[in-house]
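Subgroup meeting minutes
Present: P.N., E.W., G.H.
Scribe: E.W.

1. P.N. recapped why we're keeping a running log of single-chain structure predictions: easier to compare across weeks, and new members can see raw inputs and outputs side by side.
2. G.H. added today's entry (296 aa).
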Amino acid sequence: MTRSHMKKLLVTGASGFLGWNLCQLAKEAWDVYGTYFSKTVEIPDVTVVKADLRDFQEIKRLFSEIGPAAVIHTAAQSSPNFCQTYPEESHSINVTASCNIAGLSADYGIPCVFTSTDLVFDGLNAPYRETDPVCPVSVYGEQKVMAEQGMRSRYPKVALCRMPLMFGVAPPTATSFIQPFIKILREGKELNLFSDEFRTPVSGVTAAKGLLLALEKVEGLLHLGGKERVSRYDFGRLMVDALQLPQENLKACKQKDVPMAASRPPDVSLNSSKAFALGYEPLSLREELEVLRGKL
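Output recorded in log:
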């Protein structure tokens, strides 16, 4: 099928890790339009558009000019420490822009998917289902809760996907959490990872598949975590083994050993059985990592 016969999909945040991975996958079935703000990105077979999503008139114009058949909103300020330090600046993209995108999607009557986070929880009652009450411990988590609630009130059909920790191949404009780890180990420096912080990670490719599934099948909340609960340190041990990295400098530490602006919940593992029942199929972490060998 030629792109001119494909439906148009608007992906915000195409220069970010998740948005970039999503564009690579979505372009097989959609005519994809991806937005970026500060970092120019080029993606073959994707129309990339510069846009400041904090400006409502600019989002409105995007919808009008592109005429998308669906929207997946991945653009965000996703550094918890940045959000903690600059709450107003991050609120404009994380909350206000998200609610505006939901409102416009409702006006156009098109599917809208939002990428939220496992950090909407306090980490004391994992694994978390979609029905569990939210209780964020950071500004970033609070902003994502506000976005979820605001978007849903504007557009009840929106799909709110809570994303886990993600890793994998990234564009020059972004990184996943493992790129800095790999660099540190390859340079022969010591890498300290938390042994007391647990998540349910997935690769960017798996996450992107989950978002496209949500676009077709979901309204309301959906958890897109992986099948394994793992500490950052144990993930690091899997990573050095699968990617054949030097392992002598990998060390375990505790959250309290590293002072940070934003509080970190101890265990935000997601129960994603609802997504699994819909056909979401993360590989095992070892398999996910072995797919990446030679690409990072």
